[in-house]
Amino acid sequence: MNAHNDQPRPMTFTAAPALSGAIGVPGDKSISHRSLMLSALAVGESRVEGLLEGEDVLATAAAMRAMGADIMRDDDGIWHIHGVGVGGLMQPATALDMGNSGTSTRLLMGLLASHDLTATFIGDASLSKRPMGRVIEPLSAMGASFAASPGGRLPLTMRGLCPAVPISYRLPVASAQVKSAILLAGLNMPGQTQVIEPVPTRDHSERMLRGFGADLEVAVEADGARIITLTGEAELRPQSIVVPGDPSSAAFPMVAALIVPGSRVTITNVGLNPTRAGLVELLQEMGGDVTVINPREVGGEPVGDLVIAASALRGVDPDPARVPSMVDEFPIAFIAAAMAQGRSTFRGLEELRVKESDRIAVMAAGLRAIGVVVEELDDGIIIEGRGGDPLPGGGPIATHLDHRIAMSFAVAGLASRNGVTIDDMRPVATSFPGFAPLLTTLGATG
Ligand code: S3P
């Protein structure tokens, strides 16, 4: 499973003829993690179809198995999970290896905080740089204790408390991971756990907790803040889940189709939860021809098919209030901006500095390396668009173990004069197995 033991896998992406065809993308990463975790807490068998079989989600599966859940995949690709019940997780015998996955780490820290057990979390070089203080703080207030590496980082050992103490917590950063960690902790304690989010973030945890039968209420204040209240000592019922395609993965072929002249591509079965759909809106504002067809609901989540045609894009200055609804999509949005007519100014992106890499610095360096004029800001970036002219190209782009950096510059290569070389494509397996072959089926040469 660990992609980071073998040698770096460089790859060059070159100018593509018009892309065409209909594709689907792998299952949603956020929903896949939560499917495994909640199923592992329900007594009886849950069934998950369309689970993302990427390294991040497999890290969650391995951890849930290590704590007692029975998880298997059948020959038709359906996952079957027999859970242990809320409060029934067992002490893992060895350290939990989270690989590259911040979501696995933070959500599992929440889940374990209200269990009477000790666990050690380890991860790769990227994950070991990421801040865990944002979950350590509220989970400590609930009674868990932590011995973390300097700066609140991995490797980290935690001890949960049972019964733990419910809290009411106002999120200081707009983070669905922090929100979810607190709610998952709240499942196994008496009383009501409350999270107040001033800026809405992805709400998959709320939708799925309700779907599994938890008592969860959401109130919206006049200023738009959301107050989420979960009643503890929950009993979760097993579910049958269909995971929609990941909009964060669809983002790459979507932008590729917009910037490779003459393209027309359909991406089927894409999750369009409004807390995730910010990129579609942004690209439409930039003049992108992106149409949603067949809107429908699958397993409590809005889903649709996207039809995308190559378009002349205009620069934008997106409202920072939109950041949480496309927090993972900025690297590829920057590639769209680099191809647009005019300047784009992105602000309010401080969270990008603590993702799998410092995505502001790494994107600025990569864009410069392929001939784009940019200015890095503390909280964002200014990009001078090339008005549809091909990107000069170059590389190798340093991806710093960040899947979304690798895929963003791969897409840039398709609209480049001289090709773009990526230093290492291995991290793509964390979220988008089959990414490069999928581009090839659309007509790209890689
Ligand atoms: C995620 C939330 C986001 C996102 C991550 C997945 C989740 O992180 O970047 O890829 O599944 O809850 P933050 O909530 O910390 O912004």
Task: Write up what this structure looks like.
Its EC number is 2.5.1.19. Catalyzes the transfer of the enolpyruvyl moiety of phosphoenolpyruvate (PEP) to the 5-hydroxyl of shikimate-3-phosphate (S3P) to produce enolpyruvyl shikimate-3-phosphate and inorganic phosphate. Phosphoenolpyruvate binds at residues 29, 102, 130, 177, 359, 404. There is one protein chain. The protein is an alpha+beta fold and 446 residues long. It folds into two domains: 11-27 and 244-441, UDP-n-acetylglucosamine1-carboxyvinyl-transferase, Chain; 29-242, Alpha-beta prism (UDP-n-acetylglucosamine1-carboxyvinyl-transferase, Chain). The protein contains twelve helices and 22 strands. It has helices at 29-40, 55-66, 102-113, 133-141, 176-186, 204-211, 247-259, 278-285, 330-339, 359-369, 403-414, 435-441, and strands at 11-13, 20-24, 44-49, 70-73, 79-83, 96-97, 118-122, 145-149, 153-159, 168-170, 192-197, 216-220, 226-231, 240-242, 264-271, 289-298, 301-309, 343-346, 374-377, 380-384, 394-397, 420-422. The strands form six sheets. Strands 2-15-17-16 form a four-stranded mixed beta sheet. Helix 1 packs parallel to helix 2 (55-66). The protein starts with 10 loop residues before the first strand and ends in a 5-residue tail after the last helix. Shikimate-3-phosphate binds at residues 30, 103, 175-177, 180, 201-202, 327-328, 351.
